[in-house]
Amino acid sequence: MVRHKLYKKENKPVSFSPEVLEKVHALIRRYPPGKQKSALLMVLHIAQEELGGYLTVDIMDYVAFLLDLQPIEVYEVATFYSMFHLEPVGKYVIEVCRTSPCAITGGENILQYLQEKLGIKTGETTANGLFTLKAVECLGACGNAPVMQVNTEFYENLTKDKIDRILEEMEKKANQESIPEKRWVKIFY
Ligand code: FES
After folding, report:
1. Across residues 158-172, what is the average pLDDT?
2. What is the pLDDT of residue 7?
3. Probe residue for ligand 1, chosen from 108, 142, 149, 157 as the CB with the greatest number of ligand atoms within 8 Å
4. pLDDT value at 27 more than 60
């Protein structure tokens, strides 16, 4: 049983819509009996997107039930990968790479600048619910360091000016898009 305060079980009913559930079952059936764990990352992405933007213990337990896994097998994956959120996040999740190639090419300054600009610390969300700031390990684009990812988009060779333009664009976009586009079911199915 997960005991960290962030991961408190609330016993809230959780389920996918019948349409999404059908697609999730189809994903699971791609793998031979006993190998259904192979669908875990895909189902977690879909769960996060479809069930409120972050993974509660109830959601992780539901995923474990669907995949016939022990809950701990789901917790250990969901808590390992930075793309899974375990608490509410803003509309735009900014993940700044802090691994060595990015750190030595200015990544630390970028992170510091974002904290100042947004008025939040790493791990926090702005009061208007627009931005969450995270520091993550290598995003796999070291050749264009420093790098950050915002939701599913990559931004490379970052400078303070570039950050200003990116944030401005996102603020504008946020006023136009009320609901973030749902991608994962489409990508995996
Ligand atoms: S070190 Fe930053 S992308 Fe690899």
Report:
1. 95
2. 62
3. 142
4. yes
Tell me how crowded residue 112 is: count the other CB atoms within 10 A of its CB: 12
Q: What is the CATH number of domain 92-172?
A: 3.40.30.10
Query: Cα of 40 to ligand 1 centre, how many Å?
Result: 25
pLDDT at 62: 97
Q: Mean pLDDT across the chain, nearest whole number? A: 91
Alpha carbon 187 to its chain's center? 16
Instruction: Please say whether the beta carbons of 91 and 180 come within 8 A.
Output: yes
End-to-end CA distance of the chain: 32
Distances (CA, A) of 82 to 14, 22, 43, 105, 183: 23, 27, 16, 22, 18
> What residues are in contact with ligand 1 under a 6 Å CB criterion?
97, 99, 101-102, 138-142, 145, 147
Instruction: Just give the CATH number of 18-80.
Output: 1.10.10
Q: 0.70 cut: is pTM over it?
A: yes
In the chain, where are the structural domains located?
18-80, 92-172
